[in-house]
UniProtKB/TrEMBL annotation:
Name of the molecule in the record: Proline iminopeptidase
Keyword presence, Hydrolase: yes
Gene3D superfamilies the record matches: alpha/beta hydrolase
The gene coding this protein: pip_1
Catalytic activity entry: Release of N-terminal proline from a peptide
GO MF assignments: aminopeptidase activity
């Protein structure tokens, strides 16, 4: 079976900044067919921002492709790359409200929702809040943000067993006396106004975050200090607050969306969001189509993952 390739590069034909309240403007863009089926792309992170390659998961002749930078990251303003910018009004309910405001601004009635990693979290939360606005869901690298999921990432009994050198660098960037709670220790440093304190912490935090992105190592994207600070601040903010999800987490709201056609895709060797999370979602939602890609990790551009995602968007075109 030939693996599906990304669609050719494409440029937006419309873009702008949308005032979403609380002093925030989110950057958005639209490409593809202005009269096509609407789809909204939810990026990962949180705090990751959009990249041009994300436009290429969709047939530009069939889809009206909407992408946006979530609050305080990418080209949205103000940027969390400025340590003085408050994240008080950056929570999952705020992001859900932003998606709705963008939908209304673009005069979209209903749309396909596509999200990977943190984007899968936000897609599930949005769909549960507004199921009547979602035609289909395409989800990759499922991230449920349960206590056990964070234990896997931030203790020495989980992913650290597979990435010992990277874990040692992450752990040893804080004093031994504070290592019983690395999230809190990093929070104190990332939130410190002194660049001599927060920049080394941000770099160590994001190096650990990117260490297991793909099955085989690839060079991480080159980000300047401001982009790294924004990503680290937002990511830590969500981790430290349980992603601002409702009691019972995302699985408790599946009944609200089980009628929505959905495709779930996860790499067999995804070390950031192991297949157990996707499996647990599928067990709660057996109606959803479920794929484990045997030769893939977490990255959306890995060939088997990319194939399953494009296959899903192709089938949902009509």
């Amino acid at each position: 079976m030939a693996l599906k390739e990304l669609y050719p590069p494409i440029e937006p034909h419309e873009s702008g900044l949308l005032d979403v309240g609380d002093g925030n403007d989110i950057h958005w863009e639209v490409c593809g067919n202005p009269a096509g089926k609407p789809v909204v792309f939810l990026h990962g992170g949180p705090g990751g921002g959009i990249l041009p390659g994300f436009r290429r998961f969709f047939d530009p002749a069939a889809y009206r492709i909407v992408l946006f930078d979530q609050r305080n990251c990418g080209a949205s303003r103000p940027s969390a790359g400025d340590p003085r910018v408050s994240l008080e009004h950056n929570t999952t309910p705020h992001l859900i409200a932003d998606i709705e405001r963008l939908r209304e601004h673009l005069r979209v009635d209903r749309w396909l929702v596509f999200g990977g990693s943190w984007g899968s979290t936000l897609a599930l939360a949005y769909a549960q809040a507004h199921p009547h606005r979602v035609t289909e869901l395409v989800l990759r690298g499922i991230y449920l943000v349960r206590r056990s999921d964070e234990h896997w990432t931030f203790t020495d009994t989980g992913i650290a067993q597979l990435f010992p050198a990277e874990w040692a660098a992450f752990r040893d960037a804080v004093p031994a006396a504070e290592r019983d709670d690395l999230i809190a220790a990093y929070g104190r440093r990332i939130g410190d106004p002194d660049p001599a304190v927060h920049l080394p912490a941000v770099r160590a935090f994001m190096a650990w975050e990117s260490s297991a992105n793909t099955l085989l190592p690839v060079e991480p994207p080159a980000l300047d200090d401001a982009a790294l600070i924004a990503a680290a601040r937002i990511l830590h903010h969500y981790i430290a607050n349980g992603a601002f999800l409702p009691d019972g987490g995302l699985l408790s709201g599946i009944d609200r969306i089980r009628h929505i056609p959905a495709v779930i895709v996860n790499g067999r060797y995804d070390m950031k969001t192991p297949p157990r999370q996707a499996w647990d979602l599928h067990q709660a939602w057996p109606e959803a189509e479920f794929h484990v890609v045997e030769d893939a990790g977490h990255g959306s551009m890995e060939p088997g993952i990319r194939h399953r995602l494009i296959d899903a968007t192709d089938r949902f075109r009509t």
